[in-house]
């Protein structure tokens, strides 16, 4: 099957790493199914990509923090008679602050978005891939999942789940012609920090942020090359290596220094 007959479904596909991943698929003549919360943003990206790359772009506006949304997306795709050849689980958010101070409903929404939507969409579309005997899945984890994350405790916890779950299903599927890749970005120049109300953190104010286009290219290349995992960026590779050598208490202290507000005293 030529790429222009294949579809890639990308969640969080209207900004950040998601739109850059979608752009790479479009450049390779994959048709797209873009999922995001706001129809207006989806329509704008769809018009742009269709005109620039001569592909079909389907859009589905859903809030993936709702438990039923991934099931509704799967049903909508089937109703439109579309086949998902590549699933990209990318959408995710965090919340900034000490766990004791954060809104529990917001935290639970983040768990559903960062974990629930990934496993539900994967479970649904994987069954079709297994029946066909082919498919690709790219899960966007994070180096945040490789270390404790004071001031983003739930976000780090959700990404720890994504990282280990993705590697687990990669192993289960490696002999079934279903390829699973895991992309681990570090802090990236996207709207994530604004949505998390995290712009005051040292990480945002003083540390270099990765280019989302470069991060997306690392993930795309890993998926197409059959790699099970890629850490994007040399600095992030070093950070993960150091975290793996440290006890959790030391890694937590180091991460707190990176994430604390710039005006907060030691």
Total DSSP helices: 10
The pLDDT mean sits at 94
State the fourth-level CATH superfamily: NAD(P)-binding Rossmann-like Domain
Task: Please give the domain count.
Answer: 1
Main β-sheet, spatial strand arrangement? 3-2-1-4-5-6-7
- Which of globular, elongated, flat, extended, rod-shaped describes the shape? globular
Description:
By secondary structure, the protein is an alpha/beta fold. It has one domain: NAD(P)-binding Rossmann-like Domain (Rossmann fold, 3-Layer(aba) Sandwich). It contains ten helices and seven strands. The protein has a seven-stranded parallel sheet, sandwiched between helices. β4, α4 and β5 form a beta-alpha-beta unit. α1 packs parallel to α2 and α1 packs across α8. The radius of gyration is 18 Å and the shape is globular. The model has no long low-confidence stretch (mean pLDDT 94). Keywords: Oxidoreductase. This is Short-chain dehydrogenase. It holds the Pfam family adh_short.
Short structural summary:
GO terms for molecular function: oxidoreductase activity. The protein has helices at 16-27, 39-53, 69-79, 104-132, 153-173, 192-195, 202-206, 212-225, 234-245, 248-259; strands spanning 7-11, 31-36, 57-61, 86-89, 135-140, 178-184, 229-231.
